[in-house]
């Protein structure tokens, strides 16, 4: 065994010992929250398809028409030949939805966060992140070369204290947080955060990946990014902001400049999904309604979003409960460190407009039995 394979094998053995090794499981998704794994049909409570739009006939038809008219791929970066018409139409729609002057579509939400923060901050600047910010926000912050600090999760007081202490010593400052936190399902106190950031002349970037289309009420940040792959049922990322900021990103966000443009089918599907979600408020309200039905039946804190964590503790325990739920016909994937802090392995339950009340009640009963809440 050469040194590279020896290194990889040793790392894998350590991950296996901690029950933290990841493996791929082929999954066939269908309409109505259906998923098939290992030859069994399951009801999925792990998909981020919050509005059930990835299988909506109009969304599928829009993607098919885009492929037929513009091909399977964009053919190049957007600054070369990849700026097909669907992208401009989608950006116009996203900007209108968010109430901003402009928008820019990236290849994914991860790529958006890799590009946005480094285009705005560098050495001699300050970036402050909520302690539970998504990995891609951390990655973008670290690429800046700026001083990177954290503030306690959803704690405006700690943010204010950090800015008061450190802001005078740096040039530009950014505050990074999420509207809905992907693993906890709770919502940031954005009004407070935006007010504090403005007081200290810091620019706020909000990741709205898990909020758009479901719970995006309240104040908007000057930098609103998100993904097309969850409530919008497609794939890609975006930033909504002022026209000068978007023009700067077009020239300076490396993850935009140096990647191939989003395929026509993905952009067309997201644009049609955006049209549907704006026209159907009942669809948008349904995931939160179902999530609150679930938390009420289990005696959990009332859901703030379509995501509900059921904390278990150790990784093996979460894996065992997930396997038992799968045996009962439910797909609820166990979430383990380092995605979440050590000792907080959990079931991450995601609710969709595609679920019905009977499915939610049946899952609640199964979880109650397996976690001792019955």
Number of strands: 14
State the CATH architecture of the largest domain: 3-Layer(aba) Sandwich
**Could you give the order of the helices and strands?**
HEEEHHEHEHEHEHEEEHHHHEHEEEH
By DSSP (H or I, 4+ residues per run), the number of helices equals 13
Give the low-pLDDT segments. Answer: none
Percentage of β-strand residues:
15-25%
CATH fold-level topology of the largest domain: Aspartate Aminotransferase, domain 2
Structural class: alpha/beta
Largest sheet: 7 strands, mixed
Query: First CA to last CA: what distance?
Result: 51 Å
Q: Could you name the CATH homologous superfamily of the largest domain?
A: Type I PLP-dependent aspartate aminotransferase-like (Major domain)
Number of domains: 2
Shape assignment: globular
Give, in spatial order, the strands making up the sheet with the most strands.
4-10-9-8-7-5-6
Q: Please write the CATH class name of the largest domain.
A: Alpha Beta
Report the radius of gyration as a whole number of Å. 21 Å
